[in-house]
Write a structure and sequence with these properties.
Elements: E1 14-18, H1 25-32, E2 44-45, E3 48-49, H2 55-65, E4 66-69, H3 81-92, H4 97-110, H5 126-138, E5 144-148, H6 156-171, E6 176-180, H7 184-187, E7 192-197, E8 200-201
Parallel strand pairs: 1-6, 1-7, 4-5, 5-6
Antiparallel strand pairs: 2-3, 7-8
Length: 203
């Protein structure tokens, strides 16, 4: 349960949410991402008040503005890496399929995964799958990327790759990153650390 939570994240900032298990980190992230709407108070993102909007409106806002990376990749195993990355853009329906495929390939190149584009996601390693998940989160060019323990299931080398990608897109692409992590070394690489204890902000 979260209590008296109030803070602002600036555009282009890389923020790490830290705290012990059960402290409310993931709950807070899900509220910020509008995936959870059971709260008192208000949530404003990009100068738009999101509190009280319907699920369809929130879904459109998420698809246009927020990329989400889960601890588990949630790729569709029967689809290729390229097809998985394309899906949010196909749903957004702003570009034709050829344009979306080229945008997806660009994201795969950014993740150094272009050679696996036609490979079924089920045939990829855990680290490769998570990089595909990050590419999928970026396909619609979101202003904000939210990540819930994105390195929790990865070895140190793949974890370093993912954190390096987040640092790059924050510093060089101006993306806002809000990342839940239990790894203090990775948290210290963010611009700011927000710590929760028993559902309250302590720093």
């Amino acid at each position: 349960m979260l209590t008296d939570i109030s803070f602002t994240v600036n555009e282009g900032e890389f923020v790490a949410l830290v705290g012990k298990s059960g402290s409310g980190k993931s709950t807070l992230l899900y509220l910020l991402s509008t995936l959870d709407t059971e709260y008192e108070g208000s949530l404003t993102i990009k100068n738009e008040l999101l509190t009280g909007l319907g699920q369809d409106q929130l879904a459109k806002f998420r698809n246009d503005n927020i990329g989400f990376v889960f601890q588990f990749h949630f790729l569709l195993p029967e689809f290729t890496a390229l097809e998985n990355v394309m899906m949010p853009a196909l749903k957004q329906n702003k570009f034709n399929r050829n344009e979306i495929e080229e945008r997806a390939m660009e994201k795969l190149r950014q993740m150094q995964m272009q050679e696996y584009a036609k490979k079924p996601s089920a045939k990829l390693s855990g680290g490769q799958q998570q990089r595909i998940a990050v590419a999928r989160a970026l396909i619609n060019d979101p202003a904000i990327v939210m990540a819930d323990e994105p390195t929790g299931n990865l070895d140190s080398a793949n974890s370093e790759t993912i954190i390096g990608i987040f640092e790059d897109i924050s510093k060089n692409k101006g993306k806002t990153i809000i990342m839940v992590t239990h790894d203090n070394d990775f948290a210290r690489r963010a611009n700011r650390i927000i710590e929760l204890v028993d559902g309250r902000l302590v720093r």
